[in-house]
Amino acid sequence: MTVDAIIESFQDFKINPTEPENTQFKPLCFNPPADLRATCSSLSETPTYLFRVASPKTSAQTSSTWVRPKSTLPHEEDIFTNLDEGNKRRRTAALLNDHLWWKEPLNDPFVSWTSSLLFALAYIYYRHWSDSDGSPLEKINLYVIDTTKFPRGTFIRDVDLLNVFIDSDPLPYSNGLARLKKWREGDLYFGEYLSQGALQIEGKCQVINAQSLFDSNRLRRIQPAFADIEVPQQRPLWAKEVLHLRQVLETRGGQRMQIQPAVLRDGMHALREIADLFENPAWRLPMAVYFAALMGDRLDENVATTPTTTATPTAGSAAALLEELRSFYRSSDIGLDCDQLKTKIIAPAAMPELIQTEKIFRLVHKDYTLRKALGELIFLVDIKDVCL
Fold first, then answer.
1. Quick check: 129 and 232 in contact, CB under 8 A?
2. What is the average pLDDT score of the chain?
């Protein structure tokens, strides 16, 4: 057993006997009163996959077994319980504000997740480069959870909570809930979701070490616009860097830069290398789709040609992507045989990375359906020939 594995096993060991140990542990769900359920619509519309990046210096303790915020008292209750009694609404609004503004209060009951892989990857850079953390890549992990394995109400969108508590804004004229709400309604929306209390994620997640994403320059082979992780920035950006990368990913009109076939083929190879990092084969297809979406316009490029070569659909095009993804079809469990995929993607206009993800999932589903129909047709023709 490695040193890191031993450390993680101790992190998962619980001295407090009041904390649940059994596999039937139930998360602390958000249960708003009837008059707020329409406001909290995300409780019924949660993306299938959420991401989280954590290092040893992350506020909430995160491992492949548990995620625990700073406040995990045995008697903790849903933030909506008795919301209008005493000053609970005001206190909860203050806690929410402190959490969303990164103040890391000791009584913080929340844990943050994001529906944007792009945002999570940018956070790896920020954690690795910032003076407030500076953890080496081998100490930073990317966590992906399947929200369908949790009960309804485990996760709620940050904007829903902002709408609920906006009237109790502790700092209405400064860095408060109103300012966050204004930003979230514009370009500064990053698909943030919150859970509350301790969350058992064992068997419901996949964990990828950040170092493995950058080994062999994998991430930049998929999307060269990502910064070189080996060249640290003195004042690393996060939100602004995501906005920059979104501009790169968006499909735009006008002149497009031609990309050599060999470069695009190499990007496809990097995509497979990253997909193979996921231990559970069932996760490889959906995660390959998420990473493929980071290619952005590169998937739509006309392959550059020289006098000695001809354009083919083998490098970087949608056809090449499907060719790469087909090997993951058999092991996936996203409902390729169903009329609709089991994956839910919520892709607002401000998040081109998710718009592209949704497009690729539709493309995969169409490809699988057509190939299956073609295979059945060929089988029937063969049977007919045999009978004749």
1. yes
2. 86
Task: Evaluate the CA torsion angle 99, 104, 105, 109 in order and state its sign.
Answer: positive
* Domain residue spans of the chain: 25-208, 257-375
Please give the structure tokens belonging to residue 9.
């096993």
**328 touches 284 (CB < 8 A):** yes
Q: Interhelix angle for 261-275 vs 318-325, to 10°? A: 30
Nearest CA to 56 among 100, 101, 11? 11
- Mean local confidence (pLDDT), 304-328: 62
Q: How far apart are CA 333 and CA 222, in angstroms?
A: 25
Q: In this predicted model, what pLDDT tens digit does every residue of 209-238 receive, in sequence order? A: 999 999 999 999 999 999 999 998 878 889
Task: Say whether pLDDT at 312 is over 90.
Answer: no
- What CA–CA distance (Å, rounded) separates 170 from 54? 28
Q: How far apart are CA 84 and CA 63, in angstroms?
A: 35
The residues, any chain, with a CB within 8 Å of residue 219's CB and separated by 6 or more, are: 121, 213, 226, 229, 270, 274
Confidence band, pLDDT 50/70/90 cuts, at residue 282: very high
Edge-to-edge, what's the strand order for the sheet holding 199-200? 61-62, 66-68, 199-200
Residues 206-224 as b or e (16 or more Cβ within 10 Å = b): bbbbbbbbbeeebbbbbbe
For 256-273, the pLDDT digits (tens) are 556 677 888 899 999 999
Q: Look at residue 69 in the predicted model and tell me its pLDDT.
A: 93
Strand order in the sheet with 49-54: 156-157, 192-196, 110-114, 49-54, 141-146, 205-209
Q: How many CA atoms lie within 13 Å of 311's alpha carbon, on the beta-carbon side?
A: 10
pLDDT at 254 (0 to 100): 44
DSSP assignment, residue 304?
A: P
Q: What is the pLDDT of residue 26?
A: 85
Mean pLDDT value across residues 349-359: 95
DSSP designation for 317: S
Could you give the residue ranges of the DSSP H alpha helices within the chain? 3-12, 88-100, 117-129, 158-165, 177-184, 210-214, 218-222, 239-249, 261-275, 284-292, 318-325, 352-387
DSSP 195: E
pLDDT at residue 374 greater than cutoff 90:
no
Rounded Cα–Cα distance for residues 323 and 314 (Å): 8
